[in-house]
Specification:
By secondary structure, the chain is α/β, with parallel strands linked by helices. 27% of the residues lie in helices and 21% in strands. It has helices spanning 76-85, 104-113, 139-145, 160-170, 184-187, 196-201, 208-225, 237-248, 285-297, 312-315, 332-337, 344-350, 353-359; strands spanning 3-10, 21-27, 30-35, 45-47, 53-56, 58-63, 88-93, 120-123, 178-179, 192-193, 205-206, 229-231, 253-258, 302-304, 374-384, 403-413, 416-419. The strands form four sheets. Strands 1, 2, 3, 4, 5, 15, 16 and 17 form an eight-stranded mixed sheet that branches. The protein has a four-stranded parallel sheet with strand order 9-12-13-14, sandwiched between helices. The chain has a three-stranded parallel sheet with strand order 6-7-8, with helices on both faces.
Length: 420
Amino acid sequence: MNALIKSAKIVDSNSKFNGKTVDILIEKGIINKIGKDLKNPKKVEEISFKGLHVSTGWFDMRANFCDPGHEYKEDLNSGLKAAAKGGFTGVMVMPDTTPANSTKSGIEYIINKTKGNIVNALPAGSLSHNCEGKEIAEMYDMHSAGAIAFTDNKKSISKSSLLNRALLYSQSFNGLIIDFPNDKELSNGGQMNEGVVSTQLGLKGIPALAEELMVNRDIYLAEYCNSRIHLSNISTKKSVTLIREAKKKGLRITADVNSYHLLLDETELLNFDNNCKVTPPLRTKEDIKALIAGVKDGTIDVICSDHTPEDIENKQCEFDHAAFGMINLQTSFAAANTNGKIVLEDLITKITSAPREILGLNVLEIKEGEQANITLFNPTEKWSLKKEAIVSKAKNTPLIGRELTGRVYGVINNNQMILV
């Protein structure tokens, strides 16, 4: 793949060209030259967009592709198309499929089926066997086969003894344990955030306490085991405070937030929009302010899409019976960027180097001689998502027709290029 990117502003804190507007010559998938007003003697394709910015390829730590088992919602191929359209060159695939990705063969299935794609699909293995929360899965075998982390996704680990064993066992091979903090007994049957709005709507609420209790437990276990842990889907003000205090103590805690939790609050549910029914639920405006503050001060390390496809039958039904989740790969950057309260360089770090560092992957850099793993975008262009532009099999998103800020122009990776 050969191309000449013209007049692009580099957003890459690791690059000496950070903040500079330059041309980038790519030959055979390698960054050959970076500079001003580069010539094009070989007449390779020139890429030029208004307000063009370039960063290292974005990476998403929370992608649900429903493959194997529920390919009618999404499969690996359609999911990776959505990732590329959203500016991602790498995704971590969640393991709670049918069957769950609990074995070496399951990890190999993901790796082999996605080989050669422009988007790198890296599998997470399940923490417990079949994501049932009863006994530890074959973590070391999965690690040897290519699993980059271990999680039961939205099936929070209720048994402290199980999480304790997993934290200790994973130390032998430096495995990363990821937990979604949620007390199932407190949140059971809840439909949305517990508060004034849930009372107005007559819906059973999911209290912030259900998350915060488990955040506190996970922090204590990580301290007890002297182990690292990643807390996923953080959504409340108190959770941010607890994680901030844990980090100040020097504990090896990292955390992520879903991008839509930085944009949407519980009032989106006043019209009973099933596409806004997610877990953890959309919280209050005060929680959003705290989450943004946590992103800005480094308490929250990563911003994720939490791309969760659902079919029509599971969404176009009574609110109480609707499934949780929304698709978000194509809109994840814009969802985090639209409110304009996070500095662009910080936002890009949360979706490039930060997730790769946490997962033990090579941190990328835009420099000569490196493989071109690049996202092209405009952080200030306004646009709205059209239903016909969605490439996921599922269409469950409340962001259709909503004005968003931050448009993706394309991705380059693995000696391939897609312009969107």
